[in-house]
Write a structure and sequence with these properties.
Elements: H1 3-13, H2 20-49, H3 55-73, H4 76-83, H5 85-102, H6 109-137, H7 143-193, H8 202-209, H9 213-216, H10 222-248, H11 252-280, H12 283-301, H13 306-333, H14 340-399
Length: 409
């Protein structure tokens, strides 16, 4: 699509949000997120039951994926500057689809780890590229609303993926899961072919294409990012091992609906907690979110029934769904406006590090503490994160005091 036609379309649509290009980005993003979320609880079970791997390897299948995401997400803008937005979008989308197909051709834990790493790299690039494209397509006057819908679609993909995966694995085995993920990723790739793309100006491409660490990491976002890293560390124990845990205590039915409840509550919390944040400040959202997450982990570790497990899903979904966007908003507020891209990259890189480290370390700790024991240990760990948040916030506020007036700058 040339620049002239893009300008004409923009003029015709005015401030319209639900244009064909924006809708296509939402659909493509949704379809790509289904295999991502589906594999998080399914592949550890596949490694344990089909490949007879260890718990450490079961944790590594998600850790490798998230490690690749950390390494490649921040590079997406450089790739787009070097090779063009459309080329990066299409190549990464095709390779992500192809990586899903490779699971049908291997029965080795080593090859599964290699595929997961490659898949994580492709997913990080295609997901970042599609979401960035959607944010550019959304009109300036409705940018917040547009980004809100993009986030909601991602959460919806996270909701249906594990549910579909568990149902498919039970009815058709893991081969059925791999075929389904390949087909969904293929449809997402085909839809991405239809999204009109306007390339960046040459001057902007040259600037972004140069590698510099300061262009990738925002130092002022590090304190808040460290908080989300620790929260996502605990959350990783839930999304990676809750299915295996539920099976071990005879709650298979609850496991099938756990992720639907988790994601539904995550979506629901975002409907109103953002408004609370804007009106009353971050503490009113962040402190209760941390408390609910700790309570949910405790309830999960002590669960002896389906109702207890699903109640834990309600608390954890609500808490994590509210905390992640609230902390991101706080990180943006504490950084210069022109560094929002670097803030976002820093924040989600730390989030992925937490998810990856959590998947690995929790898997290594299960033989010593058991599933329930680890969830019970993570509950006070999360409460300690609240103390860290208080300390970081107190130090930041103290640093902003003017010695002469004692008022905040």
């Amino acid at each position: 699509m040339n620049q002239a036609s893009t300008r004409t379309g923009s003029a015709a649509n005015g401030d319209a949000l639900w244009t064909k290009p924006f809708t296509l980005t939402l659909v493509a993003s949704f379809l790509i997120f289904i295999p991502y979320s589906l594999y998080l609880p399914i592949l550890p079970v596949y490694v344990l039951e089909e490949l007879h791997g260890s718990l450490v390897v079961a944790g590594l299948v998600n850790a490798f994926f998230l490690l690749a995401s950390v390494l490649f997400r921040a590079q997406t803008s450089r790739f787009e500057a070097l090779f063009g937005v459309r080329n990066v979008l299409l190549v990464s989308g095709f390779l992500f689809m192809f990586s899903n197909c490779l699971f049908l051709l291997t029965d080795s834990t080593v090859m599964v780890l290699v595929i997961r790493f490659c898949s994580g790299a492709c997913f990080a690039v295609v997901n970042t590229s599609i979401n960035a494209l959607g944010s550019r397509i959304a009109p300036f006057s409705r940018k917040g609303e547009g980004l809100g819908y993009i986030t909601m679609v991602v959460t919806a993909g996270n909701a249906v993926g594990p549910f579909i995966g568990l149902k498919l694995a039970g009815s058709f085995g893991f081969v059925g899961v791999f075929i389904f993920c390949t087909a969904i990723a293929l449809v997402g790739f085909i839809i991405s072919l239809l999204i009109p793309v306007r390339e960046q100006p040459a001057a902007e491409q040259a600037a972004v294409g140069r590698f510099a660490l300061r262009n990738l990491i925002e130092a002022r976002a590090l304190p808040v990012s460290s908080i989300v890293l620790l929260l996502s560390f605990a959350y990783a124990a839930v999304i990676t091992f809750v299915t295996v845990y539920a099976v071990s205590i005879g709650l298979q039915t609850a496991a099938a609906y756990f992720f639907v409840v988790l994601a539904t509550c995550s979506i629901g919390s975002r409907v109103f907690t953002g408004r609370i944040f804007d009106r009353f400040g971050p503490d009113v959202v962040i402190y209760p979110s941390i408390a609910f997450l700790a309570l949910g982990l405790f309830l999960l570790g002590a669960a002896g029934s389906s109702s207890a497990m699903l109640s834990a899903a309600v608390l954890i979904g609500f808490a994590y769904g509210a905390a992640v966007p609230a902390l991101l908003t706080l990180a943006v507020q504490h950084s210069p406006p022109h560094r929002i891209s670097a803030v976002t990259a820093t924040y989600f890189t730390f989030l992925d590090i937490g998810l990856g480290a959590g998947a690995y370390l929790v898997g290594a700790g299960i033989p010593y503490f058991g599933y329930a024991g680890l969830y019970l240990l993570l509950s006070p760990f999360v409460l300690a994160v609240a103390m860290l948040y208080y300390t970081l916030k107190h130090r930041r506020n103290s640093a902003r005091l003017l010695p002469s007036t004692g008022k905040l700058t």
